[in-house]
Amino acid sequence: MLKISALFVEKDGVYFDLPDVDPWDESRDARAYAGPWPVVAHPPCKRWGKYWHGSPSKPHAFKMGTDGGCFASALMAVRNWGGVLEHPAYSHAWKYFGLARPPAKGGWIVADSFGGWTCHVEQGHYGHFANKPTWLYACGVPLPELRWGKGEQRIHPLALQRYGYKKAVRIGMQGMVGGKDKEKIRSRTPVEFRDLLIAMARAHRCGCMD
User: Fold this and answer.
1) For residue 11, is it within any domain?
2) How far is CA 117 from CA 39, 100, 199, in A?
3) How big, in percent rounded to 5, are the helix, strand and coil portions of the chain?
4) What is the pTM of this model?
5) Mind giving me the DSSP string for 124-159?
6) Which domain range does residue 80 map to?
């Protein structure tokens, strides 16, 4: 079985204690990864998402893309060693790094001139409690046929009871997650989706920049 490295993952999360998976949490600093194994990369997304500038109550607190070079190093790792990178759909990192915007209906398209491919897929098809639209960037690996398209509308029953249908739809499933661990719960990769990404990386053929 080919060994793979999982970059920018949660300490003691779903990538830990797996055979032939080398997890890099924050303490190991995945920006320093220098091979030799293909990778699954989950670079932090906070400064690339809808609220890259800060919370609605404190806008313009940050500059777009100020993630300490995490996305850039994850992208280079995938290009150099093969594998797949995951980020929320509509991530501003795609435009910033010159990657093609994948269609929401699904399907792999050419992402760049480095041999990379990209797609739009919802993690709700793979066990996430919300639909969680996601963009993938893959290089040097076979491109699997995924469960494309938009999932069924998911409404939190408590939100429906409290606010009615229209507002419950706006809030969404993830918006109803609170508490100190809300970000971890919202961003956690479901096991089936994790296994899919690991399988892609393990089928690595050659580095994109070889």
Assistant:
1) yes
2) 15, 9, 16
3) 30, 15, 55
4) 0.84
5) GGGT-SS--EEEEEEESS-------SPPPP---HHH
6) 4-151+187-202
- Domain count of the chain? 1
Side chain identity at residue 151, one-letter code: G
Number of Cβ within 10 Å of residue 145's Cβ equals 8
Radius of gyration over every alpha carbon of the chain, rounded to an integer in angstroms: 17
Whether residue 49 is contained in a domain is answered as yes
Query: Is 100 a domain residue?
Result: yes
Q: How far is CA 8 from CA 77, 80, 139, in A?
A: 12, 17, 18
Per-residue pLDDT of the chain (210 residues; tens, 9 = 90+): 789 999 999 999 999 999 999 999 999 999 999 999 999 999 999 989 887 787 777 777 788 888 999 999 999 999 999 999 999 999 999 999 999 999 999 999 999 999 999 999 999 999 877 889 999 999 999 999 999 988 676 655 554 445 554 544 455 555 545 555 546 556 679 999 999 999 999 999 754 554
Paired tokens of 104: 């929401």
Q: Does some domain include residue 71?
A: yes
How far apart (Å, rounded) are the C-alpha atoms in residues 200 and 203?
Answer: 5
| 209, β-bridge pairs | none
∠138-144-148 over CA atoms, to 5°?
100
Q: Tokens 């690339």 map to which residue?
A: 48
Residues 6+ apart with CB under 8 A from 209: 79, 80, 114, 115
Residues 82 and 141: their CA atoms lie apart, in Å, by: 7
